[in-house]
Each structure stands twice: as structure tokens, then as C-alpha cells.
Amino acid sequence: MSAHKTFIIAELSANHNGSKQTAIDSIKAAKEAGADAIKIQTYTADTITLNCNAPDFCLGEGLWKGETFYTLYQKAYTPWEWHEEIFHVAKEEGLVCFSTPFDKTAVDLLESLNSPIYKIASFEITDIPLIKYIASKHKPIILSTGIAMEEDIQLALDTIRAEGSNDITLLKCTSAYPAPIEDANLLTIPDMKQRFGVKAGLSDHTEGYTVPMAAVALGAEVVEKHFIIDRSIGGPDSAFSMEANEFKLMVENIRKVEAALGCVNYPTDPSIIKGRDACRSLYVALPMKAGDTITEENVRSVRPGYGLHPKHLPELLGRKVNRDLQIGDRMSWEVVE
């Protein structure tokens, strides 16, 4: 049995589509689907951007073409007055509930709710003052790296550690919605562990659960996936979010991968190895009389494995047997002169 249990996060993001009841129902559905945690995002349009129509603030391509940052976040945000109930319901369901704050006032709100973890979104990895403020709360931090260069990651980690906060998990992330599977670059996960001395996982925007399963096989300790009850309700993130039944399949398959990973195991007792008796060993292949010389013709390495180990064949060749032997007799040192 594997000791490795991936922490699986259902990212609610904007998938309440403006309905608190949908948010509550989503939490319950995430629990039913096997999630360990539910994550929300804590911002308002005014705390994350400017109400501005200048070209810099307009989204000209992709899933949200035609929106400004402000209009998108007005639609996508989770009202702050919902937070207390969301945290309460998640606790009742046995889920860890936490959030991604996007400014200091969001951190303060989450502190008042005793949020046990802080997530830092990849687009905020350069917001060093915000990261410093989050780290000052000395809670575990999960940090996405989607748009980050190595120097961005290192600066963020240096900032967190300078505040005396060392429980850090980096998430490999591809900031495309949905993300092409060929851009996943999952080999970065074990490299991040070694390079930065942290835990590592995956924040996934690809379709399906192939990438999360592969990430777990490569050592991901956290998997985060956008969660929606039903994509037909729409919303800014619906196109790249998993429905409840899909999420459940992902969890089930991740747990199978964990079971398959098991542990490092090199058995030392042959008697406990299933199928060991079918391996090769040395047997008499032709009838032999006492005094006959052992050759490669009359003693062979064959299945099953009850005779002498095949490594001894060179030692036996040219020696004589001390009794009559029949085809199928096990070779042993007792029959050798």
C-alpha cells in the first residue's frame, strides 16, 4: 500500500456563476466526487484591476475576447459576504477550504476565517509585497508557476522564506485555457522538488485526467483542477472545468496510480516472492550414471526454480555425479563428487 496520498483540490473559481446556492451545491458535489479540498478566489474587480477601457485593459483574444479585465472579474468574483458560509459548509462536508487572495484586504478577510492555506496564483508571482504579506501569516503556501521564469520562482521563494515560512508547494501550471496537453511539461515537477527544495504538484488546465494521473506518477503531491457541477450553466471558467462525474473518475484513477506506485521494494526473502518458483534453476536433462561428467547437455538451466541457482553451472561443468540421476531431478551439491 502506498503512503503517498495526493492532496486533490477542486477549484471553484467562477463556477458558481453568480449563485451562492450553486457554490454551496458545488462544495457538496466536490466532496461526493472525492476531493480533499475546495478552493475559491478572494478578490473584487476593484481589488484586482482598474475600471478602464484603455487597450492595455482589454482582452483581445482567447476565451474571454471582448471583455475588459474589469468586466471579466465583475462576472467571475466570489462575493466576500459568501465566504463565511462557504468555509462553514466545506468544514461540515469534511473538506479543507482555502482561497487565493489577490490583495492585502483579501488576506485579512481570510485570516478572519482562519484559512488554513494560502494559494498564490501564477499571475501574482511577481507581486512581491503581496507574497511577503501572505508569508507573514505563517500558513502553508501553494504557489502556481504558470507564467513564471525561474528567477520569478526563486524571488518568490526567497521572499516567503525570509518571513520564516517554509511549508511551500510549487505547482506546475500551463497558463492557457484550456491548455494543450503537449505543453504540460510534467518532467518539471520532479525537477522543481530538487531545484528549489520544495514540495511540488500540478495545477491543471488540460482536458481530461491523463495529465493529472501522469503528474502523480512523477511525484506530484498536490493536484488542482477546476470543478463545475454542470458545464451547461456556463460562466467564465466553464469551458476548461471538470464536471462532477469527470472529477470523480479523475480521483479514482489517481488513487489507482497511488496504489500502483506502492513503495520502494527489493525483496530479500525468496519465499515471499509470488511466482519465484517459476524462475530458472539447474535440472538433470539426460539420464546420468554415477561417475558421469556434468555437461551443458545433461544439466540445463530450465524452469521451474527448485534446483541450484543457474549461476553455479560453470562450477559444475566437468565435475562428476556421485549417483544415478533421472531426467527432471533437481541439481544439488549433494549429488556432485
Description:
The structure is a single chain. With 337 residues, the chain is α/β, with parallel strands linked by helices. The protein has two domains: 7-261, Aldolase class I (TIM Barrel); 270-335, Antifreeze-like/N-acetylneuraminic acid synthase C-terminal domain (Type Iii Antifreeze Protein Isoform Hplc 12, Alpha-Beta Complex), CATH 3.90.1210. Helices cover 31% and strands 16% of the residues. It is built from eleven helices and eleven strands. Strands 1, 2, 3, 4, 5, 6, 7, 8 and 9 form a nine-stranded parallel beta sheet that branches. A two-stranded antiparallel ribbon has the order 10-11. The radius of gyration is 30 Å and the shape is elongated. The two termini are 48 Å apart. The mean pLDDT is 95.
- Beta strand count: 11
Q: Helical residue percent?
A: 25-40%
- The CATH topology of the largest domain comes to TIM Barrel
CATH C-level class of the largest domain is Alpha Beta
What does the main sheet amount to? 9 strands, parallel
Q: Could you say what the CATH architecture of the largest domain is?
A: Alpha-Beta Barrel
By DSSP (H or I, 4+ residues per run), the number of helices equals 11
Helix/strand/pairing category:
alpha/beta
Round the Cα radius of gyration to an integer and report it. Answer: 30 Å
Order of helices and strands: EHEHHHEHEHEHEHEHEEHEEH
- What is the domain total for the residues? 2
In CATH, the homologous superfamily of the largest domain goes by the name Aldolase class I
Proportion of strand residues: 15-25%
Low-confidence stretches: none
Taking the alpha carbons of the first and last residues, their distance comes to 48 Å
Coarse shape: elongated
Tell me, rounded to a whole number, the average pLDDT: 95
